[in-house]
Design goal:
Length: 202
């Protein structure tokens, strides 16, 4: 039979050996855990660095894009100012041209109104003159008609008087003419007979 002392010693050695194995396992686990944590931290740091690089690249790209947009905006502002200045200049030119044209049209209208008033006055004067001339013509024609009628009456009276006087004179001298004609007739008949001519044959 084995002794009790030896059994106790073996039992104590086995427990000690178990303790050492447990400590080694714990140490290895701790080391493995530390290694894993380090790797995780390194991966996390690498991820952070990669994110930071991407963020920096995005920031640089955004800054570049912002500078481009600011340049384009400034160019657009400059072009807008130039366009506004040109439009303002053209607007001023057009406004001056419109003002000049408006003054010219006002002067033309004023001149045309004056011409119209002058023509109206001249037309009114011409109408009044024509009416006056017509009245004077009618009055003159009436006077001439009356004068002609008076002259015709006087001429008719004179003519009738002259004819009456002439007829009276003719009546007075008719017997003398008849005697003279008869004497001349007899005289010429006698001469014809002297020449051997018969007056009845002539």
């Amino acid at each position: 039979m084995p002794s009790k002392t030896k059994g106790k010693g073996m039992k104590a050695g086995s427990q000690k050996k178990k303790k050492n194995v447990g400590a080694d396992v714990e140490a290895k686990s701790a080391h493995r855990l530390a290694v894993l944590e380090k790797e995780l931290l390194q991966d996390h740091l690498a991820l952070r660095r990669d994110e930071a690089r991407r963020a920096k690249a995005s920031e640089d790209q955004l800054r570049w894009r912002l500078r481009v947009l600011e340049a384009e905006l400034e160019e657009a502002r400059s072009e807008g100012k130039a366009v506004y200045a040109e439009m303002s200049r053209q607007c001023q030119v057009l406004q001056k041209e419109m003002e000049t044209r408006s003054r010219q049209l006002e002067e033309e209208v004023r001149g045309l109104r004056e011409q119209l008033e002058t023509c109206q006055r001249e037309a009114e004067a011409a109408r009044e003159g024509a009416e006056q001339a017509l009245r004077e013509r009618d009055q003159t024609l009436a006077q001439l008609r009356a004068h002609v009628a008076d002259i015709e009456a006087k001429y008719e009276e004179i003519l009738h008087g002259s004819l009456n006087q002439l007829l009276a004179k003719l009546r007075a001298v008719k017997p003398q003419w008849d005697g003279a004609v008869l004497r001349l007739h007899t005289k010429y008949k006698e001469r014809l007979r002297q020449f051997g001519l018969n007056p009845l044959d002539l």
